[in-house]
Design brief:
two-stranded antiparallel ribbon, five-stranded mixed β-barrel, 5 domains
Length: about 550
């Protein structure tokens, strides 16, 4: 098996992992003086410079790690703009001016929620200015909900998000986004400034996309059309309560978050289209990434979509400069960008699940598939030069199947622990369901993308054709999901016996995967069993399977 070195293949990990460790350290303690942290970071950088000249690799690595931890610690305290005095105050009614930065689409047109930044308020509340806030407000009768970049005046009750929040709760989501205040139980009084033309364009684009995905199918299968719009546009409110529950229990709710699957499929479709037009490589890159960003921004600019977009851009840059592709380096580079620009995202379930799952795929899933294929290959005793067409077809099917199974098992280790920690759900059926539904969802996304392209080109009849094909595949997906969750033991409500078990299990799993990869998954230091054994032990002795609703 090819020798691997984690640091050699992705040197940026020596920066991003210490920075993430520093962010975690900053969230757990404030006892370290900022001045001492800055002094330590500067000293580490000076040592790194000296080690670089002297070619002292170990000292250089140690200095970089120390500087990264200090940088992460400082970044947390710079970005965590929590007003400690407000934590002790009761909720109070306030009138504020907000600049809307993000909108959460809701089924109720009379209400609007999202993120905003406080731009103006009463004099005695001036310390709140420039602070981000989550708002959930009532829209005035006859008025439209505000768009991103609009400035509104609102009256509501301001509540501080608790410093200690439960994992997976909405308050935990707000804290990971750097939001420490909630404005609710109020209404919008006035629009101080209209949204920018670009934001109006994005909203019109979203409305147009939603209409195009309904052409020819909305009246026939409205429930599946809603699923199509939810999958392509990230509009989860389109799903009924029954549909949302089914996808959650089957472990496939991630299909409706605009993330890596969606962005990668659409990126491949865009590049294929631009290649057919025989455009120069630099023009293909510019047009393709520009169109892809428009899709990300029109669908709401969710953090998971932005992270996936960054990774795709890094891959395309590597292709443009004709450098060897390195998924691990691309993963590390995208994580570093996120940590530098949005450092508090590392505490979100979305960040931890997406990067954890991709890391498990690269470090465990792909090597495991390669080991299986090397040990149990098809037609081993038949010289490959004598293979007929059916030999090649069977061998390709075997390789695809073993790769999918190995990747599914590896990623399930992470998603199982994350599902227990954040959602209090154990979904053993998710392994099989995702093996079948992820490729099928790729077909749906590609069909929906083709529908949008046809509609934008003025060929709405062709959009209807693509919509029909997407809805047909969605009907199969819906059937599989319903049958899967009806299987005995397909899902269950479960929680960790103690709060510390979840983080400890995640850490132990990560260490086992990295150690196994470093040791080439062989010998007394590694082999394949430790990651699976860790999860198995946690499930056996660290999880309470009692359903609080049915004790």
């Amino acid at each position: 098996m090819i020798s691997r070195s984690l640091g050699h293949r992705a040197p940026l990990l020596w920066i991003v992992i210490p920075m993430m460790a520093g962010l975690v350290l900053g969230s757990t303690t404030a006892a370290i003086p900022i001045s001492a942290t800055i002094g330590t970071a500067l000293a580490a950088l000076v040592l790194a410079g000296c080690s670089l000249r002297a070619e002292g690799n170990r000292r250089l690595l140690g200095a970089v790690v120390v500087a990264g931890v200090c940088a992460g610690y400082l970044s947390y305290h710079l970005n965590n703009t929590r007003l400690e005095a407000w934590q002790k105050l009761p909720p109070r009614e306030v009138c504020v001016d907000l600049e809307v930065t993000r909108i959460f689409v809701q089924a109720d047109p009379k209400r609007v929620s999202g993120f905003g930044t406080i731009r103006g308020t009463d004099a005695h509340l001036r310390e709140l200015r420039s602070h981000p806030v989550y708002f959930s407000l009532q829209v005035a009768p006859g008025e439209a909900a505000p768009l991103r970049s609009a400035e509104i005046s609102a009256l509501g009750v301001l509540i501080a998000v608790p410093a200690m929040v439960a994992p997976g709760s909405f308050d935990a989501y707000l804290a990971s986004a750097g939001i420490h205040f909630r404005l609710s139980r109020g209404r919008i009084l006035d629009t101080r400034a209209p949204p920018s033309r670009y934001r109006v364009f994005c909203q019109h684009g979203l409305d147009h996309f939603s209409r195009l995905l309904s052409v020819g199918v909305d009246e026939k299968r409205p429930e599946l059309t809603a699923v199509l719009r939810a999958m392509l546009l990230g509009q989860k409110h389109e799903l009924s309560d029954e549909q949302g529950t089914s996808f959650m229990r089957s472990g496939t709710m991630h299909l409706f978050a605009i993330s890596g699957l969606h962005i990668s499929v659409i990126a491949v479709g865009l590049q294929a289209l631009l290649t057919l037009l025989r455009l120069p490589a630099n023009v293909r890159f510019t047009m393709g990434m520009g169109a892809l960003w428009l899709y990300v921004d029109i669908t709401g600019g969710a953090p998971s979509a932005v992270r996936a977009f960054i990774m795709v851009v890094l891959f395309e840059l590597a292709r443009s400069f004709r450098t060897p592709g390195n998924p691990l380096s691309a993963l590390a580079a995208s994580a570093l960008i996120v940590v530098l620009v949005w450092p508090l995202q590392i505490f979100s379930a979305s960040f931890q699940m997406s990067y954890g799952i991709v890391a498990a795929l690269l470090l465990l899933g792909l090597p495991l598939a390669a080991a299986w294929q090397e040990r149990w290959s098809c037609f081993r005793l038949v010289p490959k030069t004598t293979w007929r067409w059916y030999h090649h077809r069977l061998d390709a099917f075997y390789r695809d199947a073993t790769s999918a199974l190995a990747i599914g098992l590896a990623t399930t280790l992470v998603s199982t622990l994350a599902g227990l920690y954040y959602f209090q759900l154990l979904t053993p059926v998710a392994v099989l369901a995702n093996l079948l539904l992820i490729p099928a969802s790729g077909v749906v996304i590609l069909s929906g993308f083709a529908s949008l392209l046809a509609g934008l080109a003025g060929m709405e009849s062709l959009s209807g054709l693509f919509n029909h094909s997407a809805v047909l595949v969605l009907a199969i997906i819906d059937f599989v999901v319903q049958r899967a969750i009806d299987l005995p033991g397909a899902w269950s409500v479960a929680t960790f016996n103690s709060e510390w078990i979840g983080p400890a299990a995640h850490l132990a799993l990560g260490v086992a995967i990295v150690a196994g990869y470093q040791s080439n998954w062989a010998g007394h230091r590694g082999s394949w069993w430790p990651p699976f054994a860790i999860v198995a032990v946690v499930l056996l002795i660290g999880v309470d399977y009692t359903d609080p609703a049915n004790p």
